[in-house]
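Okay, can you check this protein?
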Amino acid sequence: MKGFSLLELLVVVAIIGIISAVGIVSYNGYIANVKNKQAQTGLQSIYLEQEEYKSINKQYYRPSGGCGDQTDTINNGLFGGKVTLDNTDFRFCITGNQTSYSARATNKINSSYWFQITNNNQKRDQNNNKW
């Protein structure tokens, strides 16, 4: 007899489904890690640019307004118009005064998920873990 039985086809479909499910979960985890690293890199860029800004202006850069999505303001005011920060997945803001600041990247989908860096280069996340 030539061909496959229905049982053999069902087994193959089940195996393909299991492999696909594992692959999708792995892929989503990989994408989330990349987005997190991009936010952390953005905060590290803010830290470095703040140090340069302070050496020139004798104070830290402080955007006006509340701590909403200040990404465009930071790109223009701190980075001189260069699009350094991308706010596709995280929004960035800086709070503080002339002598200290805190910069935060908050996830746009889940606002309880964030990363933060201070003028002392102290880095932490929403669980108070260092990154």
